[in-house]
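== Sequence and structure of one protein ==
=== Format: two labelled lines per protein ===
==== Data for this protein ====
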Amino acid sequence: MLQIDIKSLADSYGNVVIGGIMEHVKQAGVLSGDSACMLPTKTFSPLCLDTIRSCTTKLAKRLNACGHMNCQYAIIASEDVFLLEANPHASRTVPFVSEAIVHPLAKYACHVREVSS
């Protein structure tokens, strides 16, 4: 069983952007602070990643998320996707993802929160 960590941004209009999908190198259940991650993912099929993107987008809309949302999923047999947790805030890996995708996610989240209030 492997774990994926996904960073997303949502605004008050229901728009959701996936900032990055990180694959944990260690098995699911290991504290993310104790596990190395890689971005982009290397193990999962396009169908699995599409499922994760779709679930995250639906979840952000359902929760009326505004700003950062961090989700963690467990993946079994490269296809079965289970949500472990969803947090409506930035996590400590946002700077890493921002560097990897060359976009300042924290700055974008601040802007989204500012124009949504």
The helical segments are 46-62, 94-101, 105-116. Residues 93 and 110 are 17 Å apart (CA to CA). The mean pLDDT is 88.
